Each structure stands twice: as structure tokens, then as C-alpha cells.
Predict the structure.
Amino acid sequence: MTTTIPPTDKALPRSLWALMMGNFVIGTGVMVVPGTLNDISTSLNVSIPQAGQLITAAAILMGLGAPAFATLVAGWDRRRLLTLSLVWYALLTGICALAPNYATLLPLRVLAVIAPAVFTPQAAASVGLLVSPAQRGRAITFVFLGWSVASVMGMPLSAWIGGTLGWRWAFGLVAAMSVVSAAWVWREMPNGIRPAALSRQAWGQTLGSAPLMLAVGVTLLSAFGQFTLFSYFAPYFFQTLGLGGGALSLMFLWFGAFGLAGNVGLSRWIDRIGAPRAVLLTLGAMVLTLLLWPLGQAGIWQQALVLVPWALGCFACNSAQQARLVHLSPALAPATVALNTSAMYGGQALGAALGGILIAQGHMLRLHQVGLVVLILAMALSVWAARKDRGQRLGAVRA
């Protein structure tokens, strides 16, 4: 008997391009604060740690909101849901740009990031209904290329605009792009895309699965370790290398270009090497950068070279984690993708909060040490999750 394996090189549907663009806009909007942190601090007359609370508060809302909204919007048509989330992003981010002071900006920013809490997990959960199972890993990593493209184009552009015209113009750019993206999603997404509703039983199966929850924990630790330092790239590079304005945007562009290359490479190889191995490789790349981090203080080119492994692994790791969870249990994908998004944003909140505390105590130059320890823990947890999954599968076969 011959088994036919469906081809994986078939062209992806056009709707995935719209979802990828949506993630680009979402990613640019999420990273606009780290990219303009110096200008926000100066313009609104607040300290760097206080400005960093914009990252922490937004990440908390996104982390808690992703699973909650996944249940709330379970029956919605995804064409309408994803379009409305981008319209909301445009409206609230535009209002943020007009905020007269920090006390007004903080709650507006929290309201604005309801959109990422909805769009990113629901776009990923929709992929399974748009492509064949053989294309699922490739399709998910493709949709998450939007975050990598945001790091290449969106974040450097935001940093440059923030350094030359001010952070308000950078927020305005995100609002304008959100309108364009909403129109694209509305045009390309088919009607009737409704992933299975998340029942109590589905949530119970998800939360009761050790491999799934351990894998989600990897995402939490990965984001935690990275954002302890990543949240404060702008003030860190200004303090250590004197980078600001155009030079800072070029550093972000450098980081983003390699981030995009890492995600593109992963999308081509993930179905061959397997998601768990891909996660371990990307985490290892980021650990390498933090081990070499002190070398970067010698100069801008040394710092740029040290950043390369981190960039290659950063966004690729997020994509591999999404694919890993979908492969572990396709039926529970809406729940696991929502939890994974929650863990990603929760890790960002923890990292930004801890980084702010360390900076307030005068320990900015030690941020990489904390990030290194947390990322090593993420690697160990990833290995444990893979072993747990293999053990359960072997047990099921024997039974």
C-alpha cells in the first residue's frame, strides 16, 4: 500500500498575505513604544522606567485579554472580527497620538492594545481553516512573518520618526497603516471562517495537558528573558553608545533585517526539522548573543555583530512556538494559540517591569545577565516539554 503525502509547496492563499500585513501593523504598533521611549520620556517629562510602564501595562492587558477574548468572540465570523480589531487599533492609536500628558496616554494605550490581544491569536487560529494540514506549519510561520517585517520596517521607521518629528507622529503612522490593513483583510478574507468554539471541555483539555502547558511556559520565559533588555534598547544604546535618532533607527533596522531572515529561513525548514528542534535552535541563538553581550560595549559595529544571533532567533522562535502548539493538538489550536499569545505578552510585561526596576536602581548594564538566566531556563523547559510529549505519545501507542 502506498501512502500519498500532500505537497507542501502549493501556493498559499491570498488571504494569508492580508493576515501577514495585519500582523505587521500589529507588531509595529506594539513596538512603537520601545522604539520611541526616549522621546516619550522627554516629551511627557517622565522617567525612563515610568515610560516603560506603557509597555508593561499594555502587555498585561494583551496577556490577560488573549484567552478571555478567544472565548468571547468564539462564534464571530473572522473576516468581520479581524477587520474590526484593526479599525479599533487605528482609532485608539490615533487618539493616543493626541494625548496631552502621560496620565491620559497610559489608559488610552491599554485600550488600544485590545486589538493585538484579538488579532494575533485569532489570525493564527484561522490558518487551519484556510490551508491543508500539510501546509499548516509553513502557513503559520508565514503569517507571523508580519512581526519580523515590523521589526525591519516598522520599528526602525517609528524610531526615526520619533527621533526627528516626535513620538506622536510615529503613533499616527501606526493608525494610518491600521486603516489600510483593515481594508485589505476585509477584501481578502472569505466569509464563514469560524474556528470551533472553545468549550469548557476544550479549555480543560488544554490546561490539563502537560506538553501543551510546558510549551506555553517556554513562550513566557522566552519573552520574559528578551524584554528585560529589549524594552529598553533605546535608552541602553543611548547610554552606552550615544545612539539616538537616525543611528538608533539603523540599529533597529539591522536587528530587524536579521530577524526577518531568521523567520524566512525557519518557514522553509520547520516542517523538515520539526518545531521543537526549531525552538531549541532559536533560543540557543539568543543565549549566544547574551553570552557575548559585554563585547558590544566596545563600539557600534561590535554591538551590531553581537545582536545578529538574537535577531535570527527572536521572531523565528515565536513562529516556531505557534507551529509547535498547533502540531501538538490541531483541535485545541484556538485555545493554545490564545494562551501562547497571552504568554508572549505576559513575558513582555514581566521583562519590561523587571527591567524598569533594575534601571531605577542604577543597574541598566546588568539587564543582559538577567535575560541570559531566564532564556537558559526557557531552553531547559523546552527540552522537558518535548520529552513529555514523546513520553505521552509512546504511552498512547503502547496502550
